[in-house]
Specification:
The chain is mostly helical. The chain has a domain of 46 residues. Helices cover 73% and strands 0% of the residues. The chain is elongated, with a radius of gyration of 23 Å. 0% of the residues are buried.
Length: 128
């Protein structure tokens, strides 16, 4: 049993790392430039301004350094700032969490209301 648990834990750690790398990579390979998107309405912008914004956002360092900084930020609760409203991302997520939980709970109740009778009917009509 202990061997099974250790094997499952190692697999879980591997999956979490794989999901983290995939999530971070997908966010970085999306088309478009975050900096250009932020300053699109500013009109004429100098190269120095673009470089400064890249440095503020941490986009001026290599991919692996960006990934490590992202993981450290997740671990300590610093999820960065929203690109839209320039507010802390964790704050925005915490505001949306109650509504998300409510929608999830309602979905679960609806699924149970449908699944329990279907399961009972299926059990009663087994082998038919």
């Amino acid at each position: 049993m202990t061997r099974y648990l250790v094997k499952r834990l190692i697999t879980a750690v591997f999956v979490v790392i794989l999901v983290a790398v995939a999530t971070f990579s997908l966010a970085r390979i999306l088309p478009g430039d975050v900096v250009i998107g932020q300053i699109a309405d500013a009109g004429t912008v100098r190269k120095e301004d673009i470089d400064r914004i890249r440095a503020i956002l941490g986009l001026d360092v290599p991919f692996h350094v960006q990934f490590w900084n992202w993981i450290k930020g997740l671990a300590v609760g610093d999820w960065g700032r929203s690109l839209v409203g320039n507010k802390p991302t964790l704050e925005q997520v915490s505001h949306a969490l109650p509504v998300t939980a409510e929608l999830g709970a309602i979905s679960l109740v609806i699924a149970l209301i449908i699944a329990i009778p279907v399961g009972i009917i299926s059990a009663l009509r087994a082998d038919s």
